[in-house]
Amino acid sequence: MLHLPVLRWGQPYTSMDVDPVVHFATGEPIANVSRANSGLIQRDMRKAQRARDVLREIPIDDLIDRAGKAGELYMNGMLPMGDGTQTPDEFVRAQSASTGLPARMCRANMKKNAFVLAEMRAILTSLTRGLDFNVLSLGHGEERGVPLSYQPHSPVVGLVLPSNSPGVHTLWLPVIPLQIGLVLKPGPQEPWTPYRMTEAFAQAGIPREAMSIYPGLGDVGAAVVESCGRSLIFGGTATVDRYRGNPAVQAHGPGFSKILIGDDQVDRWEQFLDVMADSVFLNSGRGCINCSGIWASRHTREIADAIAQRFAAIRPLPPDHPDASLAAFTVPGVADAIAKEIDHDTQAPGVTDAGAKYRDGSRLIKEGKADYLLPTVIHCDSPDAAIAKKEFMFPFVTVVQCPEAKMLEAIGPTLVCSAITCNSSFRRSLLDAVHIDRLNLGPVPTIQLNWLQPHEGNLIDFLFRARAFQTAEL
Amino acid sequence: MVARLSMTFEQVSTISSPRAALDAWVREVVDWHFDPSTGSPFWLEFAKRAGWDPRREVNTFDDLKRFGSFEDEWLRGGPVQRWIPKGLAGKPVFVFETGGTTGIPKTRVACEDFRIDYEIFSETLPDEHFPKGSNWLMLGPSGPRRLRLSVEHLAQYRGGGICFCVDLDPRWVIKLIKKGWSDHLHAYKDHVIDQAVTILQAGHDVKCMFATPKLLEAFALRLESMGTTIRKAGITGIFSGGTEFTPQWNRFAHEELLDGAYMTPTYGNTLMGLAASAPSGPHNNYKITYYAPQPRAVIEVVDFDDAHKRVEYGETGRVKLTTLTKEFFMPGFLERDEGEREPACDRYPWDGISGVRPYRGFASTTTVGVY
After folding, report:
1. CATH code for A257-441?
2. pTM for this entry
3. Residues near B242 by Cβ (< 8 Å), separated by ≥ 6?
4. How many interchain CB pairs under 8 A, A with B?
5. Which H or E element spans position A439?
6. A43 has a chain B CB within 8 A of its CB
7. Mean pLDDT per 10-residue segment, chain A (474 residues)
8. Domain range A2-253+456-466, CATH class
9. For position B153, which CATH number holds?
10. Which residue of B has its CA nearest to A36?
């Protein structure tokens, strides 16, 4: 069986504590992963500056080229994986087996990661708004005759990664080309991408001393966040709340992404059905950019019914089936708890399970050790229903009846908002709404990304500090 | 029925068979606690209500099963005097607490037990690492806990050393953890480590210390950030305990924190006393096996579903503690830990336990602090 060691600035370290990674359906062990301990991370972080130093010896232009090569290796190469090796197909099988994601979705996520690596130059140009990369390397420079200075907040960035959505790895891929070291804490069920990507980077000429991987439990994640000057962490609402206001931590949680349909367009709602269904369903509804709320002032019952009909035939399929579209829940009890919560919430007045009449039995399906939740569409007569503010990690959406004039004050924090309206006044209000992160005007699926624009904060702003700077001749 | 000959602890200690010594000591302790002239009000009342006389029916350690499980609720609340054996009337009595972050803590009365326990433990400490007469640092919980006085006595007992202590309130630490106030938690930890570093830098020639694993780690990392190490700062011997102690952490400490200083893990609590560990290191993959100070205390590893059934060697079960002293009788207390039953070794000819960790039935609700 594969063993994945702790990587301490590129050096493998076999811990006496190991955690098995198991197949979601059979429980069969796939790999053993060495577990780090928090003190070990704190010690290693004393050498964090070395990670940036070795990266700064390589110009950003070269690092971008090497990232591109890493993308090719990640996508196509046979790469070391712990004490073994993995082909791309083996990687997909392992990721699917431990996360419950259908293999075709794992492949799609691989393509996303490879695309970001291949397009790194354009992405960094966009993220830096065209800044000369040398300014970041040297710490200062000049543009349009104006002196500029950028200073990294930290020589390394910590990442406490999730298990449920391999697509989020795209967020940290630009870190290495920015000459910042990587400190990764993989999700317990998804160690594969961090290890494969690290190996791809190394094979492409990125110094191993710039990368660490610390698998482990909650204390390891906490140690990564505490030890790194800048960290990204993925978790639930509680995690986001915990780090709210902490400038050193960018917490990524549920997106509560939504589609709002203006009064001027809602009578033609059928024309937007594909956009709505795709926004809810693609990637098995797991992403923070999947839509979990569709808001309109009228026709909401018809919209909910139509989407529910679309989803009615969807059933779990084996993860390697070419048509598999539902991901399994791999942590025991989670699907049961969600199903119970939804059943409870739909007892509230004004709340209807629009898919109930198209479903034969429970939304919860158990197949061996795997649990699935069938796509669920709930209609709410008003935004006051408790379930109207909820999001779950499967294709789930509430269709909420709400007057257009009240929508913006009622929707709450929204990561991606696709607003279907030509009403200039409503558009103005949407542009001004600070609780919306990414705004799509028009029938754009919430899951459609423009890779040149980050959907949740700008990595450059997070990692670097712009400051005043002057020099004088000596 | 076995003849009930009264024996002193010293006499019991001369019995060559550990089992026979344990059984003899059980008889002695039961006779003491259930004799109307020497026993504690609690146990005398217990026997009256139970309707059987332990002095007649308890002849061996295994007979203690008749008491069933010792309920920790019995130790909460007063009057605490009900636990003082009449035979010790008039002696100065200490009360030590355990738990109590919320609600009423458990209390244990003591006159000399904490001193005796640590004198016995002292015999397990190698003099080359814990030189007699050395000064000590107690980097652990203060307040109503027995550890502070115990370590202080240990220092005094081992050649008249002085023990320096820090202020540390573990109940506040657990509250900080439960509230998720991690900034405050780190500030408090820094505050405790500041005190330890100040003592170490004050010219007291401290050579030995007690520390919980978490504080030892924080202490070592602080010293490292100051360009020194535990050993270079003069510490030659450490005994550590109070929270879970894994082989991996044991290895990490030896390889990366201690810089050659000697460290021995311990397991214990206010109710039982202190269990020392057999030597561990690379030769046994840093496996830590604890042995209770029999016959004054016994650790059993019992079936999760049947607390009267010991598991087989190498198998996992829940920790069951029995304390047998003239000051405190606690038969069959189910601790909030589990581990694997280990066979006797040369130094400790009775059962031990390895892999001690929070009991799986409580693990999700247990907050592990610094102690």
Report:
1. 3.40.309.10
2. 0.89
3. B140, B141, B147, B212, B213, B370, B371
4. 35
5. strand A436-441
6. yes
7. 97 96 91 96 96 97 98 98 97 94 93 95 92 94 92 97 83 96 96 97 98 95 94 88 88 93 97 97 90 97 97 91 90 92 95 93 88 96 95 96 96 96 97 95 92 74 93 89
8. alpha beta
9. 3.40.50.2300
10. B248
